[in-house]
Amino acid sequence: MAERGARRCCLGWDFSTQQVKVVAVDAELNVFYEDSVHFDRDLLEFGTQGGVHVHEDGLTVTSPVLMWVQALDTILERMKALDFDFSQVLALSGAGQACFSIKDSPVWMDSSTIAQCRQLEAAVGGAQALSSLTGSRAYERFTGNQIAKIYQQNPEAYSHTERISLVSSFAASLFLGSYSPIDYSDGSGMNLLQIQDKVWSQACLSACAPHLEEKLGSPVPSCSVVGAISSYYVQRYGFPPGCKVVAFTGDNPASLAGMRLEEGDIAVSLGTSDTLFLWLQEPMPALEGHIFCNPVDPQHYMALLCFKNGSLMREKIRDESASCSWSDFSEALRSTEMGNGGNLGFYFDIMEITPEIIGRHRFNAENLKVSAFPGDVEIRALIEGQFMAKRIHAEGLGYRVMPKTKILATGGASHNKDILQVLADVFGAPVYVIDTANSACVGSAYRAFHGLAAGTDLPFSEVVKLAPNPQLAATPSSGASQVYEALLPQYAKLEQRILAQTRGPPE
Length: 507
What we know:
Layout: E1 9-15, E2 19-26, E3 31-38, H1 39-42, E4 53-54, E5 61-64, H2 65-81, E6 89-96, E7 104-106, H3 114-124, H4 127-134, H5 143-153, H6 155-159, H7 167-176, H8 184-187, E8 193-194, E9 199-200, H9 202-208, H10 212-216, E10 225-228, H11 231-237, E11 244-246, E12 249-250, H12 251-258, E13 266-270, E14 274-280, E15 290-293, E16 301-307, H13 311-321, H14 326-335, E17 344-348, E18 359-363, E19 369-370, H15 375-396, E20 407-410, H16 417-427, E21 431-433, H17 439-453, H18 460-463, E22 471-474, H19 480-503
Parallel strand pairs: 1-6, 6-11, 6-12, 13-20, 20-21
Antiparallel strand pairs: 1-2, 2-3, 4-5, 5-7, 8-9, 10-11, 13-14, 14-16, 15-16, 17-18, 18-19, 21-22
């Protein structure tokens, strides 16, 4: 419940796949209120499963837009019933999953636009050319390709469309009572924005649909105050007329803000999939991963890399090589040497994203392929391999470990100190742990405070310096840098060798 008495605050919203969530953060950056509406549980009338409707083709995945509106109303009515003091809200911001709004909006799980992706890449000179321009090669879920599909399959609906929004800008529009612009950071996940110049790419717009620029509006910096809250919320809930709406952004950029990454930092989420967030100064867009405009520093960038074979792979090797015991798994990491005697492994029981490899591939110190390792060697080969792959592919996007680099680890495996020790050793940087259960929500509230201060040129790090600090979990072992500087090139060469063998000769 909200605490009684004046407590000036900012609200952070998250319009995610399965729920809408809110947190209130006070001026000392303490979270003192949170609530959520879960679509499947709380809004049964929309008939979603996992927050979405999967269509008969198995590729098209949508969410009803009115469901998000209903969820917002439900949360605000709950807050009102609990006497939340809306008059103390200085500003609000939020995050949304990446997609755009029609009556049934395609969401990030949609993969029905393969043809449109190929058309877009061809129009600009290939996948690498598109990545260099927009930060990513063409992806089925990205908005430009979804717009192209709507235009091709339902040109009448497209022609009658006045405005196209991302979920983030749509949600901001609800609070403004008018169209909100798309911010640079979420806009760079559309295959439409030139990430260097931060303007829409005319070549990409033309390849997707006619008159698209006027339907999108002009993009804005992510820390922009896009207006004051609508009079509807002032009259119905008691928001102050001067409450500012700061541009909403994507869920991943908001999470970067929530984790308070700084230049040179890495966030590693060790979950079902492993995800890397990187702060970049000089990005090198590639065919893998994504480069976005940085949501808290308009001069810099962020990168995102996803690895499918995360915790489930770790659990399989634990079961096979450590008698289903995390304690035995950890003991194996402690009892084996850094570098694993030159034994290297690649473990992809499902087709990996980064890189596109499937299967288990083991190599001994002479780079000869072997069929099996002893149990303790297998465990270290898995963990070292996972983290070496992350470093290699991060560096492929322009990342470099700096003296001030810190790694923020989250997710289930971040509770295992021995896994984190390998992470610190491979990257040569200290590892910290942080609670990010509400990182997108909290990051949105932080961004609201930053938006209030943006006119003063106060950096984001100063705005959030009172936030709780992450806890140091591991520091690099003596000699680790020499071990892994030698192994990393070897691992990268073996990865390319496996890729060449699995792809076979060119057609």
